[in-house]
Amino acid sequence: MKSLLKLEEATKFIFSYVLTLQLGFHWWSFWVWLIVPDLSILAYALNPRVGAVVYNIFHHQGLALAIALAGLFLQNPALKFAGLVLFGHSAMDRVLGYGLKYSDDFKNTHLGWIGKK
Questions:
Q1: How many domains does one find in the chain?
Q2: What confidence tens digit (pLDDT) does each residue in 87-117 have?
Q3: What would the pLDDT profile of 23-63 be if each residue is shown by its tens digit?
Q4: Alpha carbon of 42 to those of 51, 53, 65: distances in Å?
Q5: What SS3 string covers the chain?
Q6: Most buried of 11, 57, 76, 81, CB within 10 angstroms?
Q7: Which class for 100: exposed (0-12), middle (13-18), buried (19 or more C-beta within 10 A)?
Q8: What is the extent of the structural domain holding 81?
């Protein structure tokens, strides 16, 4: 089952990249912006609870789709692109085993613990 879920997330990742190309963005722009959502990790400098909330906002696939749909509705290419990058990034993270965070520890995710406990 775990492999099937990773395949599903990999498909979402590829889909988000292909959509950015279909929207007319340069092939490299997706890759340049792909790591930006991980800057949300800096919120962990405040404390784990705040870090988890901020991290989860930037890695929530529902919010990413809402941003992309807002861009579609408002005919705003930047919002469409931002939503697709956020969606693709969160899918990539889930393929790699990084999920949404619990507030007790960065390594505690909805997919299980990252690394050895």
A1: 1
A2: 999 999 999 989 899 899 888 888 878 876 5
A3: 999 999 999 999 999 999 999 999 999 999 999 999 999 99
A4: 7, 12, 24
A5: CHHHHHHHHHHHHHHHHHHHHHCCCCHHHHHHHCCHHHHHHHHHHCCHHHHHHHHHHHCCHHHHHHHHHHHHHHCCHHHHHHHHHHHHHHHHHHHCCCCCEECCEEEEECCEECCCC
A6: 81
A7: middle
A8: 2-113
> Tokens 């909330």 belong to which residue?
53
Residue 28 pairs in a beta bridge with: none
Beta carbons within 8 Å of 85's beta carbon, 6+ residues apart = 16, 20, 30, 33, 34, 36, 37
